Amino acid sequence: MNSVVLENAFLERLVAGLPRTPRQRNGLQESDAELVSLPGGLLLAVTTDALVEELDSGLYRDPYQIGWMTVLVNASDLAAVGAEPLGLLLNQTFPVDPEAGYVERLQAGVADACRAAGLAVLGGDTSFGPRPQMAAVALGLVPGSTVLTRKGCRPGDLLFASGPLGGGAAYALGALGGGAPGPLPRFLPAPRIREGQLVRSYASAAIDTSDGLLAGLDQLVRLNGVGFSLDLDPASMLDDGAAILAQATGVPPWFFLAGPHGEFELLFSVPAPRAERFRAEARLLGWEPLVLGSVIPEPGVRMCLDGSESVILDTLAVRNLGGHCGTDPRRYLEALHRIHESHHRERERSRS
Amino acid sequence: MNSVVLENAFLERLVAGLPRTPRQRNGLQESDAELVSLPGGLLLAVTTDALVEELDSGLYRDPYQIGWMTVLVNASDLAAVGAEPLGLLLNQTFPVDPEAGYVERLQAGVADACRAAGLAVLGGDTSFGPRPQMAAVALGLVPGSTVLTRKGCRPGDLLFASGPLGGGAAYALGALGGGAPGPLPRFLPAPRIREGQLVRSYASAAIDTSDGLLAGLDQLVRLNGVGFSLDLDPASMLDDGAAILAQATGVPPWFFLAGPHGEFELLFSVPAPRAERFRAEARLLGWEPLVLGSVIPEPGVRMCLDGSESVILDTLAVRNLGGHCGTDPRRYLEALHRIHESHHRERERSRS
User: Tens place of pLDDT for every residue, chain B, 352 residues?
Assistant: First the structure.
């Protein structure tokens, strides 16, 4: 299974034999939201995401945050295709006897995230069960004729992130018990809907960082047959919380780009000739996207792990750690340390 | 809480404070699928339904059936608004180590139900967790200008069911251990998509019987401020399996119309002047819908419980039993027997 992404392989097994439609503009895993042609030239974007491992592991515990994230994970997929939000459906399973205020706090998180994303709630399904469950469906329309998916990166394109990274991994370390002692940082990422609409006009491909930067890049590598050279130093990619935690714990900064719990920023490639105009328009929104590096012809992710020369990182090994280590951050960190060391030794060997 | 449907009251609490949109053509609980106006005059139908109690209670155990029902419960909502199927998204949580063949049998049920409903699979979300979960989202388009919702029944309309009833309750009795001994009857209801499209051209209102006939009628009573007179004898409404079980166990036939696990038929009202033409068109499809009775001005459901005079049934009490008795069919049957007896005593009193 060495060249196989465990999650992708399972998905391919799931969809074998299921009927498909020529109305769909994207293939399997080629887009954060499914894109469906409607009569009259409309393009519908639809996505569904559930919080399962996030609740089972205790990653999200506060009901307001659970409500917010249920909306956000879906809004983030709409943002990655540059859709105009249309509406949301909720799929909620409640405990039979919820604590006082639980339902209201949960729904307040849903309502606030919907307002932040410009999503109206259309309806949904409500159940009762021993384990609370949350899922949602987000619908949007993609205007005009420019379709943005995960496919389209070309060598020479610049690679952008919509904001600083590592906040999702830093939060997960704190929440799951692998971080520094102290209060848990707040984790309520903003939906990047408006930014996504601008990105659609300029970018050649986009994906959100729901699974972290490196998993997103690995997915883009596989779909586009290209590679990425990360020219920005990992420490400079981190948001303040992650940077402080990296310093306090001595964990190499790139580990915060490798966690399976991402920060829900957009990751996108923009052809170099359009990049200046894109950045100028972004500034008009009061938005300063980060240039991480560029697209290169050789598949793989080239980055600097420890402040010296850059290496081609084994992103597949990083990406499959989730399946092997579950939600135990200590095992995850140990595994990352082993990858870090092996790259270090390899470099030493090639020098001597 | 005596005049309150427990489920509806909870739903109203959930949606208070959530943003809504004027694009939506139906109000809360007024339609089996949400209806959203799109630019260009298109009307999108979207619905999401999860199997939660159905899996937690063991009502559905066979993976093929679980796959089929995940699609069917959603397709049935599209049928009730007369939509043309567009596509389906799946929200699946798998056990970390599924039994050999489990995934394939589950997906075969999904695939076969999708083909039966004319639904293509667009995508979805996959998770892993200690409890298998299944949910789906179905999308459709409502052509033309005729919108079919749960609202619109007028006194004098005829009340139809798309097929014989009681099969869902009979199945639940068998599966949950309140029925006669013997092999469990097969329960893989057919999606009523084609029938729903015909119904949309003729009916004043429609709902599916996912929660059983009486819950569906109670919902229509509340939304329309009308009542229903069931002129067909309950025994004559039952499908073969339910009829045989009613005879074998001595359970009054109307109990099979009162269970919270319905048969996923369509329940709809047709203005009397259009009824003959509707039935003629239905026959062209090889379809013989059942006339159950008619819409009357007085709110409530008038029906014959035991072969003598008809009574106004306390459908609210019946409908709230689910919340009080959970998924224990013995408690449910006992409660129905109490309602049966109280109606019987009342009639005796009014006679003397």
Answer: 346 777 788 888 899 999 999 999 999 899 999 999 999 999 999 999 999 989 989 999 999 999 999 999 999 999 999 999 999 999 999 988 888 899 999 999 999 999 999 999 999 999 888 888 899 999 999 998 889 999 999 999 999 999 999 999 999 988 888 666 667 777 999 999 999 999 999 999 999 999 999 999 999 999 999 999 999 999 999 999 999 999 999 999 999 999 899 999 999 999 999 999 999 999 999 999 999 999 999 999 999 988 778 899 988 888 888 766 667 888 889 999 998 988 888 878 877 7
A180 touches chain B (CB under 8 A): no
Same domain, A49 and A163: no
Helix (H) or strand (E) holding B343, with range, is helix B329-351
Q: Which of B141, B169, B202 is the last residue of a domain?
A: B141
Q: What is the 3-state secondary structure (H, E, C) of A233-297?
A: CHHHHECHHHHHHHHHHCCCHHHHHCCCCCCCCEEEEECHHHHHHHHHHHHHCCCCCEEEEEEEC
* Final residue in a domain of this structure, among A106, A141, A176: A141
Inter-chain residue contact A130 with B56, CB threshold 8 Å:
yes
Q: Is B52 on the interface with A (CB under 8 A)?
A: yes
Q: Are residues A314 and A236 in the same domain?
A: yes
- Conformational region of residue A40, where left means phi above 0, alpha means psi within -120 to 50, and beta covers everything else: left
- Residue A200, domain CATH: 3.90.650.10
Tell me which residue range forms the domain holding A281.
Answer: 158-351
Q: Which of B19, B50, B53 sits opposite A91 (nearest CB)?
A: B50
Q: Do the chains contact at B135 and A125, CB–CB below 8 Å?
A: yes
Q: Is the Cβ of A131 closer than 8 Å to some Cβ of chain B?
A: yes
In Å, how far are B141, B198, B240, B258, B267 from B163, measured between CA atoms?
A: 24, 14, 12, 16, 9
- Cβ neighbours for A14, distance < 8 A, ≥ 6 positions apart: B92, B103, B107, B126
Residue A14 lies in a domain: no
Lookup: tokens for A271: 């052809």
Provide the token pair at A62.
């506060």
Put simply, the answer to whether A120 touches B23 (Cβ < 8 Å) is yes
ipTM above 0.90, yes or no: yes
